[in-house]
Amino acid sequence: MPHTLLTLNYDVLSHILPLLSLQDASQLSLASRAAYALAFPRIVSDVTLGGLYHKPGGSALSQLTAFCNFVLSPAPAWHGAPSARIDALQSLHVMRDAVRVRKDGAWTVDASAVALLSTVIARARNLQKLTLWGSDALFAAYPDFGASTSTSISTGASSIRTLVLGGDVPPLPMLARAFPHVRELEFVAAGGSCAPDWAIFAAANDTLSAAHTNSLGAWQANLDRVDSGFPILPLACHVRRVELHNALMSDTYMLFCAREFLRRTRPVVLSASVSAGLNEGELSAVLDAEIVAPGLRYLELVGDRCGGVKEAEEWIARVANALGTVKAPLLGLSLSVTPSVPAMAIPSTLKPNYYAPSAPVAATQEAQSVDVAALARTLAERSPELQFVALDLSGAPEAAHDAKACFKTYDVRGERRVVKVGEEQGKETLNGMRASNRWD
Predict the structure, then answer these.
(1) Which residue from 110, 145, 162, 178 has the least number of CB within 10 angstroms?
(2) 136: left (phi over 0), alpha (psi -120 to 50) or beta
(3) What is the rounded distance in angstroms from the CA atom of residue 438 to the CA atom of residue 402?
(4) Within 13 A of 304's CA, how many CA atoms are on the CB side?
(5) Closest to 236 measured CA to CA, from 246, 248, 245, 223
(6) Residue 331 phi/psi, 5° resolution?
(7) What are phi and psi for residue 340, nearest 5 degrees?
(8) Are 242 and 265 within 8 A, CB to CB?
(9) Which of 100, 237, 227 is nearest to 166 (CA)?
(10) Complete DSSP assignment for 95-114
(11) Cα 391 to Cα 376: distance, rounded to the nearest angstrom
């Protein structure tokens, strides 16, 4: 009997099917019923609804309605179990226009579409990742969005492990009630998610009320990672890993919010972008020697808008002094820099006649070498428990491309030593450090 794709063992097929493009999987599904059942999970596993702004009005809403009705309807017997369609859904991305309808010349959210979407989310028991744009409008139109409607059939919300939010975001208690078992909470970077008033103008007390803390429900025990561009002050529960992407500048209120956010989440792994101009006192204040620093095991800092190699070296020296001040028991440390944004050149043809002629452009300077080993040694001496250091200064203007390396640090007869390790070993160690927990 000749072997075909459909006669292969499923263990083999499970490695082949993910390699198919959506177009190829769609073509395969047209071959036969058996091929349809085989290709269907690949087609429906990762779905995006909306984002059809270039299409006629109502196209995105029609797309959402048709998809939801399709996966909610029972699958035919030859396809498998009645829930085979909705069981294939693993990742769902919902854009703003997917639930909008034009009424009286204005765009508004269709509450019936939001209710239909909520039913899909509640019943999709294998849904692992949910991305919502403009989720505030969804909850406003349908307050029970995401909540289970029947405990006997609704398990989708409890299966969601990663919640990604873009645009306007509702208050945390609403999200925690709708998606209680979320492990990873992400706010779309690069300004994609708006910092709402409740996120940055929360109570500034050291401790929040018990009622507010309890409103986070299961998130207090389940939340493992928060990825955001801005501090979220109401998030008063411990989180193993915190990532802050918007650079912390030398601004009193901004630094206060960052410190309070870290005091309330008490991360073990912290990744943050900070201005390369922050002084030692400002860095020490954010890391907070009393509450934040004692729990840190791995710290990843990006020096934002570094003006050159000298500034990068000075910034690393300030970081080393700050770590010595707060006495953080770090096991791993990663420091890198990004270049400053150059001023935009104005073409001479666009300049008015009264502008003086531009000076000749200076020749490009040679790349400067950096003694990264000496910098790593300084960091190791200031942090006695440090076991691993990764430095990358290649992003600084005029720095050599090889101004980066990873080091192991250890004690020899009371003297701190640093030993350079290979790139692959360094990446492997970094990944292990990012997985650190409170017991490491």
Answers:
(1) 162
(2) alpha
(3) 34
(4) 13
(5) 223
(6) -100, -30
(7) -70, 155
(8) yes
(9) 227
(10) -GGGGEEEETTEEEE-HHHH
(11) 8
pTM of the model: 0.87
Low-confidence stretches of the chain (pLDDT beneath 70)? 1-2, 53-54, 57, 148-157, 189-214, 341-365
Amino acid, res. 351 = K
Q: Which of 367, 370, 371, 372 is nearest to 398 (CA)?
A: 367
What's the pLDDT tens digit per position in 182-205?
999 999 865 455 566 666 665 554
| Maximum pairwise Cα distance, the chain | 86
- Tokens in use for 68? 């939801």
- Say if CB 122 and CB 157 are below 8 A apart: yes
DSSP three-state, residue 275 = strand
Helix (H) or strand (E) holding 89: none
230 CB burial (10 A radius; 0-12, 13-18, 19+): buried
CB-based contact 203:183 (threshold 8 Å): no
* pLDDT digit string, tens, across residues 29-55: 888 898 898 889 889 999 999 987 667
d(CA 89, CA 311) in angstroms, rounded, equals: 49
**Spatial separation of the C-alpha atoms in residues 438 and 440, rounded to whole Å:** 6
Beta bridge partners of 269: 241, 298
DSSP-derived secondary structure for 388-426: EEEEE-TTSTTB-TT-EEEEEEEEETTEEEEEEE-HHHH
For 312, residues 6+ apart whose C-beta sits below 8 A from its C-beta are 276, 303, 306, 337, 370, 393, 396, 399
